[in-house]
Every structure is written in C-alpha cells, then in structure tokens.
Task: structure prediction
Amino acid sequence: MRVRSGAVAAAVGVIAAVTAPAVAPGVAGAETEETAESPTVLRVAVTQNIDSLNPFIAIFASSTELMRLMYEFVTLPSAEDQSPVGGLAESWETSEDNLTWTFTMRDDVQWSDGEPVTAEDVAFTYNLMLEDEAARTANGNFVSAFESVVAEDETTLVVTTATPQATMLALDIPIVPEHIWSEVDDIASFTNDTMPVVGSGPFILTEYRAEQFIRMEANPDYFRGPAEIDELQFLFYRNADAAVQALRTGEVDLVNRLTPAQVDALRDVEGIAVNEAQGRRFYELATNPGAATRDGTPIGDGHPALEDVRVRQAINQAIDRDVLVDRVLGGYGEPGAGYIPPVFQDYHWTPSEEQRWDFDLDAANELLDEAGYPMGDDGVRVDGDDRPLSFRLYGRSDRAFDTQAGEFVRNWLGEIGIEVDLQIMAGTRLNELTGEGVYDLAFSGWGVNPDPDYVLGIQTCGQRPGEDGTGGTTDAFFCDEEFDDLYAAQLAEFDPEARRALVADMQELFYEQSSSMTLFYENALEAYRSDRFEGFQLQPDPGGVIREQNGYWGYYGAQPADGAAGGGGGVDTGVILAGIAVVVLLGGGAAVLIARRRRATADDRE
Amino acid sequence: MVSDVLAPSESLGDAPDSEGRSGGGSGLARYVASKVAGAATSLLLVILLGFFLFRVLPGDPVQTMTRGRAVSAEQIAELRERFGLDLPLWQQFIDYLFGVLRGDLGVSYFYSRPVSDLIAERFWPTVLLAGSATILAVLLGIWLGTRSAWRHGSRFDRTATGVALTLWSVPTFWLGLIVLMVFAVGVGPIPGMFPTGGITSPDTPPGVIPYVLDVAHHLVLPCITMVAVIFAQYQMVMRSSLLEEMGADYLTTARAKGLRDELVRRRHAVPNAMLPTVTLIFLHLGLVVSGAIMVETVFSWPGLGLLTYQALDVPDLPLLQGTFIVLAGAVVAMNLVADLLYRFLDPRVRAS
Result:
C-alpha cells in the first residue's frame, strides 16, 4: 500500500507542477515590466498551415506572408497606396519599346550572414526560375515573358522580356542569396530550414516547429533600420475560435480572418482593438454562360437559358446587394458591382447612374417577359423548348456566406419565376463540378493583387480548359473577344492613365454581360491587443490591413504601446491566487484519499 | 468519434472458434501464425483500399492547391507530372504498392516532404495524448463501473451512469470548445489556467524539466476532453460484466465464508469481471488514435489527427493514404494483440 500512496503523492506533484507554468508567466510578466531591456515580442495567431519554407514552392497565404518578412524584393507595393517603391532596387528605367528594364540596386544591403546583396543574387534568383521547373511553382507567372536576366555589375540588373509586361514593377518574387541557393541540388525537395535562414528582409527566421510556432527575430542590419519590435512569433491555431480566445487571454497579440460574429464579440473587450480593413477580395455569383473548352467545344450541362445575356441581366437585377452586406456580412463590407474591389482605388470601377442596375424585381420580370420566357402555371418560367428555368446553385460548405447568401438568392429569383435548387458541398467537389461545367449558378470569390492583370486574365477565352477538358484556370467560362482585346491592350499599356481606362472598359463590359456578378467586397477583419502594441502600418493607409499585406509594413511598423504590460501579458494576480487555490484543493483531496486508503488497508489486515 | 468502439468486441467470437482446430504442442504457434497472417492480409487490404478510396475523392489536388493563384496551364501540367498524376491509375498503384513495401509512403503534395517523415513527427504527440487519456479513462471507468455495479440502482449508480452516457453522446468538438472557454479563458470565478492550444510555448526556458512541464501544461485540457468522452465505455462494460458476475455462486460462497463485502468485491468479483474490459481496452487502443482527430483540432495539438484533418482539406493523396495506413494499421495491430492476449488471459480459450 506504500506504493499506492506514493503514486497518489506523485500525481499531486505532477498536477501542482502542471498548473505551475500558468502561474509563472504572470510572475515573469511582473518582473519584466521593471527591466526595460526585456525583448518586445509580438505574437500572431496563424490559422492556416505553412506548406513550405522554400519561397519557390510555398503557395499558401500564410507561407508567402513569412517569405515577405524573410526576403526583400526588387520593388514592392508601398504601404500608402500600393504603388511600386524600391526594395533592393534604388531606381529603374525602361527602353523605348518597353522590353528592356534596367534596375540599379542599392549597394548598402547585406544578407543576414554578412555577405553583400548584389545584382548577381537577383539575376541568380530569376534565372533559377527560368531554368528550373520546380522554382516556378509559386511565382512562375511573373517570369513567363522573361527572355534574359543579366547582372552587368554588382548594382546593375538588366531584364529583357519577349513581350511588354506591365507588371515588371510588381514582381512578387523573394530574392534569395546565391551563395546559399547555388548549392541546392533539388529545388522541389529543398526545405530551407537551416536556422537561422539567411535572408535580407526585416525579420530573420530563427526557429520553426511545424504546427507549433515560428520565431523570427528583427534583422539588426536591415537596410531600412531594425524593426521596433525585437521578436515576432507566429503561433498555430487550427481552430479559429481558439485563436480568438487566445487573443482574449493575451496568449497572442494579433488575429486576422475573423468572422463578423467574432468581431462583434471582441469589439467591447478592454485592451483589444478591431481593425475593419477594406478587403482585397470580391464575392461573386457565377453563371454557366455556356461552358466550352479553349477550341469552343461545349462541355458540361449548364442550362441553355443562361447563355442568353438577358436572363443573366435579369438575375443581376434581382439581387439586393445591400441586404446581402447587411445580413450576410453583418455590415462588414461593401455592395459590389465592378470587378476590382474599391481598396484598389486606381482600378476600381463603379457603374454610372444609367449603367447601374439597382435591385428591381419588376424590371427583372419585365426583362424576362420581353426576352420570351413566359411564366408557367406553377410560377416558374419556361424557355422556348418548354424547359423550366430551374437552376442549380452550388455553394461551399466551408464558407458560411454561401449558405446564407444562397437562401436570399433563392427567394429573390423565385420572385422572378426562376427556381433555384441550392446545393452546399465540399469546396473540392464544387471546384471539380464547376471546372467541368456541370453547374448553372455557383458562388465564387477571388483575392485581387495590386496589379489586376491576373484576376482579369482568368476571364479570358484562353483560360478555358484544353480539348481534354482539363488544365483550365478560367473562373466561369467567360469568353468575349472584345474583352480579350482589351486584356491584351492593358497588358501592353505602360501609361498608367490609359491602362486604368482600359481596365475600366473591361469591367464595364463584364458588368454588362453579367456572366459573373460581383455581389460584395468583404472587409478583412483583424483584432489586436491595443494595450500592448500600436503603430501597425496599414496597407493601404488609411483603411487597409495589418496582416497578409503585399509587403512587410504592418509588422515592421509595430511598436510597444505606451504603458504596455511586459512580455507575459494576460495572466494577473487573481490567476496566480486561483492557481495556488487549485493546487491546495487537489493536494488536500489527495491527502484525504491517502488517509482513507491507509485506514481501509488497516481494516483489511484485521 | 468513437461510436463504433463497442462493436469490435464481436470479433472476439473468432478467437475461441479458430481455437477448436488446434491442439497439442504446436497449438500456440499455429494460433499465433494464423492470427499474424490474418493481420498481414488485413494490412494489404488496407493499402489497396486506401489507394482507391482516396482516388474517388472529389477534386483534382493540383487544381485545388493552385486555385486563387496565378498559375499557367503549363505550370499545372508540370505539377501533375511531378506528382505522378499524369500516369494511368494502375501504374500509380503499382508504384505506390512497391513504395509502401520499401517503407516509402511517397511525398506529400502540400508539404513537399516525405510522408513517412511527417507521420513520424506527429506520431509521438498523438501517442502522448491518446495514451494518457486512455490510461486515465480506463482507471476512471473501471472505478466508477465497479462502484455502480456493486451498488446498482443506487443514487451513485444512476448519477454516474447518467453523467457517463451524457458525456459519451456529446459532440467532442463542442465539449472541447466548452472546456477551452472555461479552463483556458476562464468564466466567472474560474480563472483561465491553461493554454488555448498547441503542445509547447515558444517562451519556455531551455532545459528538460521546463520542457516537460510545458508539455504537461498544454496536455491538460485536450486530455481532460478526451477522457470525458471515452471513459463511459469502460465504465459501462465494467458495470455490466460485474453485474453478471454478481449472481455467481462463488461470490455467495465467499460471502458465506464471512469475508467482508469490500474484500469480496476487490479480490473475487472484480478480477473475474475484468476480462471483457481488458480486451476492450486493447481493441480500443487502435481506434483511440483516430479518435483524437477532433480533440487535436480543437486544441491545435500537432498530432496525427490534425495531420489527417489537414490532408483532407487539400486533398493531399499521399499524406491521406499514409495516415490511413498508420491509423488502420494501429487497429489491426491492436486487434492482433487483443486476440493473443485473450488466449493468454482467459483459460477457457486455451482449453480445447
């Protein structure tokens, strides 16, 4: 019986020890408040995984966010308005025909191991992508028109392209050190996890534990000057609600990708501030305007009535975007019309009064009457072949918007004699079905880059699938020659004003065609511990985001708030006392148990 | 998550049956050999099933991974080729089968790393969580089950059974969130005492003891959640098998000898009632690993469950197949152990 009571005592010891760390940070926090030199650590909750630390392969938003902190770019979008500013490059000029770009590099930038950063490193990075398939995985589209990249001397880089490329100042490619990466045999399997990882960005990656945390230290030799905070930690949360709770307890200082409900719950919490940023995403209702492959062969089984532009326009008029923003987004967003979100002021387009279709069920009904879709006895319209206007509407189960918006859309379309069969499914299933053209209506959405080229490109005819029905990156089989012409023109247009006008024309045409209808632009919702940090640089400023920027400005600007609590944060004296109380209670309980055991064994012996 | 846990006990019926044919000195060897051969066959079927099962999952992994990204059709073709998705299905399977036999589970699409490395990394956190939760659940279940049966119909019995069945039927995810809200964030007078997720914190001072304490501190909430959900089955099995024993003659005899009630229970009734519980424990050990998926997701515990959950998201076929083989393999292995143990524990199985 000795053994047994010994075990109980040991258990008590373990419990006491386990609860002890809860107490310890509070104590440590109290101490650090007095010592001014303790490092300032900004802790960020990450809910998305890191797919790779290799900048050529990593494609997830969370990973690219890390890459932006670890590596500098040649040029990058400014914090204020996303216009290109110099990174490694000090200045640049183009030839008359816009095919040759000459960048002059700064001569005062160092790799974190002390080697200088030169034009050779940039040339090496770009050439690696031209030569190695695997190195094109993440950012290959940026170099697809490159013909040659040459470092003429330490500070001069010359890039020639086969066709004029308007995105040359928005190359989202992290520049890697040649003296490290030239030793890599196989880019595809290189994990890039030798700590500290040599880079030239504002933060140096010093520790990575998969699915646990990432530690980055401020680069003391960063050419713009070291960041105000000493350390940046990313903590992994697989459950977004748990991440929000961690913000409340002070375990993390910054959380993003919040839902409207989460923001509402955090809004009144003391010491927490909410950032309602204009988002860079749009949310759309895509139709099947006649799915076809690149050579025009019809595929899938979309409803033929949707090939009629008037049917699509009627649907467009039958959707009340204000209600969607209000009820689905909880007010955290803006009703949509143009294709590019308003956060990109230069390219955002809004229809004029005459062009604009406001929510008008009568007008939509009239339009369908005129177009020759008479209302059937059951309140559902039929087309020329007596086929009822009954559409499948697909949504994703992992996006709550789809279920909610889907119900509204079903009701509105019901009012104009269109029957909607709402089906919510896994995202992968939805992608598969829409990719094959097996749908009528579907919810979709895209994140837009500062340069609109890519997101406009997915609406061109050439992005439809090949003859075998695969390999397309089209959004919803939109194909319009005029749109394609405008697309080609904007890509080759180097005058910003003229390019803006072309992009506006494309959006007007797209709106008119109503192949896909932009419903709203959701805000990017973030929250942070305002009692500990301030000065996050937004992008764009004002109205922009702290996290997942096209750059590193958000973290780089962060600084400790006035009168901020020390490193521990969150755990206060009450918790310490409670912790002690729990230990005492458990210990007392165990003592009673031991005593009872003793008595019981004594009885047995009788 | 573990609703099918009680079912496998039926398979125990096989053990005595196959025993009937064996006899003599080589009986044990033949018994073991037949069980091992059965397990090996099951594993082969698992590999076969795993491969084709995940091929019918909707979604082209390459399309899913690159969706919302600026990729050209050429890049997509390159990715397909790199992952071997351009080969005919039968060839993909042959490649895969020989790979598995060599211990090579392929390369994860998502992480661009060998699947076996990823699984090895996540294996121990799951064993730690599932193992400690099982030990606690078994102890709690046996203790509560014994008391309930001995005083069946009492208020203690009714309360304990009610609580156990309620927790058993509560959704794990929901229970986990409640536990998290109450003990990590704190509600009313209860302060937040434990971390909201993860297995370690970045700020723990170096050294073995701080590390162990840090992990233990993170372990508390997921472990409590898991125990709460799974202890009911041990309690119920222990309760019912002890109830069966209680009518037995030998207990009357023991009592007639004048032994105290508690002694009769501890020394005579409980050991005999333990047999079904012990086999259940081993059968369940294989399943408990996959049962950790929900708990790991709520508490961001970096184990196999979380790995599987993420692999489903992509879908990351090699990783899914790999975790499927490991999880199913654990069930097969533990079934084998239970079969062998059953023969060892129950004299009736040996006597033929």
About this structure: The radius of gyration of chain A is 29 Å.
